[in-house]
Design a protein that fits this description.
CATH architecture: Orthogonal Bundle
CATH class: Mainly Alpha
Largest sheet: none
Radius of gyration: 13 Å
Number of helices: 4
Shape: globular
Order of helices and strands: HHHH
CATH superfamily: ACP-like
Number of strands: 0
Helix content: 55-70%
Distance between the termini: 24 Å
CATH topology: Non-ribosomal Peptide Synthetase Peptidyl Carrier Protein, Chain A
Number of domains: 1
Length: 92
């Protein structure tokens, strides 16, 4: 079972994926879990920058990487969750 942070980040990424795909996610994608690759949801580097900005605002953190670095390091939703979790812990 996913923890609250994972659920919230999946919801944020799902909302972004829907907006990137004309308001819906194709049924062929299936369930969105932490293992889901960002590219499989139609999230490109520009959309990833939006996600990172939203997460910074939501959790009061600063993600110290440019979008190119983020794109190479954050391949799936779980990578995003763990990056945010680490930054939240550092801020505490």
């Amino acid at each position: 079972m996913a923890d609250q942070l994972t659920v919230e980040i999946i919801a944020a990424i799902k909302n972004l994926a829907q907006s990137e795909n004309g308001g819906r996610i194709p049924a062929a994608i299936g369930d969105i879990t932490a293992d889901r690759q960002l590219t499989s949801l139609g999230i490109d580097s520009l959309a990833l920058a939006d996600v990172l900005w939203d997460l910074e605002q939501a959790y009061g953190i600063r993600i110290e990487m440019n979008t190119a670095d983020a794109w190479s390091n954050l391949k799936n939703i779980g990578d995003v969750v763990e990056a945010v979790r680490g930054l939240i812990a550092k801020e505490a």
